[in-house]
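Look over this record as teaching material.
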Amino acid sequence: MAKIAILTDSCCDLPKEVVAELGIHVIPIELKINGKIYKDTERSPEEFYRMMSISEDTPRHIPVSEDTFVQYYSKLYKSGCTDIICVSMSSLASKTYDNAVSANKRFFKENNEANGKLRIFNLDSRCYSLFYGYPVMKAAKKALRGASADALVAYIQDWFNVGGGYVVPYTLKFARRSGSIDETRAFAGELLGMRPIIEFADGNAITAEKIRGVKNIVPKLLEHVEKKMTPQTPYVLVYGSEVAPIKEIERELTKHSGRKPEMIARIGGVTASSIGPDLVGIMIRRKTDV
């Protein structure tokens, strides 16, 4: 009988209670802030936001190592797993996915008896935060209802293929320091009061539109997303330090789309270190003709 394990990293930003309830295996990603190293799961998002705001250095995440992945694969294999579905944060921003893949090859070299008994699927989320945490969560629920590993992999990959994440940072300081946005463009944007809608889709991160003025962020983001969104399909929301903007988005998008968000979550330290703690974001299923 198949025994499937869903394995991911803490950049997925899934709530701890959801992880525990569904038996999802989450590898903590480490963050380096002001010369000290912290596990992403050992402090609250708000604590990381505060530390980052006063940090003299650029906060950085430390990719999950090949050794760590081998340890997790070994532990899950010894527990009787026949299939491991390992979903990693975007390979554009981290070596975590590459290390997961190399660990896959190394595991089977070191454990010949596992060949034919265990399958390891490595999936590059090509995105961040709840934008891959949500399909991981849904896959875990499907696994509990008896779905096969192949069906779960197909489900997750479908989300990555048609999903689109749309994020607006309220400040460009962190994106500029981390390299997520070109420093010259970020500096010019701040001088002009511009904020980008960053689109994460098809394995790319691009500036889809520019918004002038903070007061226009929510209405312009909603306008942009509604053009891209497949009607009557699930969507999720993420936010950082400020609650009010995401509440407005939830209210307006519920009214316009006719359905409530499937999930709302605060971004963790890893996502905040790249884009900043002050942001709002929406993940949707895009129209196939867009």
Remarks:
- The chain has two domains: 4-161, 163-285.
- Residues 182-188 have pLDDT under 50 and may be disordered.
- The longest strand covers residues 204-212.
